[in-house]
Amino acid sequence: MNWLVLGQIFAINLVYIMLNTIRTLLTMRGYRNLAPILAIIEITIYTLGLSMVMSYIEENIMYLIFYALGFGVGIYLGMLVENRIALGYSVMQVFTEDDNHVLADSLREHGYGVTIQPGYGRNGNRLVLTILTPRSTEKALRNTINELNPNAFFISYDAKYIHGGFWTKHISPPQIIEENFEQDQKEGFEKPDEVITKDEYIE
């Protein structure tokens, strides 16, 4: 049994699965240019790793075990890397008691665009706040909400496509609009000359 080959098989499959996990997540988030590039690298590494394990599998079952270990560790590391780089945007929905827009106004003072909808819960009137934020700053937004209103309930989900609206100060609106302009044209939207201001949004 060759420990060097075992290490190579483990490392190759780890890198392959890590790239596969990242590429899958990028595809789901609409990164059409980056995902194919990763796919080319991914399949090259996969072919190399598979050929190595097939050459040694009859010699010792440990080669297959290390191949499988690389698979599992690769998925875990791929998820860690994707969470670390935090590509894309999230939509945060906050459910809170009717506080006369105190929380919404405070979030706007922090630079976030907030859309308010009325709601009704078991204990009376509620407000539903919808906020767009880069995934890289989602944790900061959660912390801000907890500081301003510890009793607020909130959920977040990925935003795949974005068009128009008021953006947080952390987002570059022209860049986002340019990225989605092609899709806008297909759907019949007109490209705005500029994003509306915060004051216009609040009105």
Automatic annotation (TrEMBL):
DUF2179 domain ranges (all copies): 112-164
Which protein family is it in? Belongs to the UPF0316 family.
Its localization reads: Cell membrane
Q: Does the keyword Transmembrane apply?
A: yes
| A GO CC term assigned to this protein in UniProt | plasma membrane
Transmembrane feature ranges = 6-22, 34-57, 63-81
Q: Which UniProt keyword terms apply here?
A: Cell membrane, Membrane, Transmembrane, Transmembrane helix
Q: What is this protein called?
A: UPF0316 protein HW423_05575
Q: Which membrane topology describes this protein?
A: Multi-pass membrane protein
Every copy of the DUF5698 domain together lies at 21-79
UniProt-listed InterPro entries = DUF2179, DUF5698, UPF0316
Q: Where is this region: Disordered?
A: 184-203
Top-level taxon of origin: Bacteria
User: NCBIfam families attached here?
Assistant: PRK04164.1-5 (NF003194)
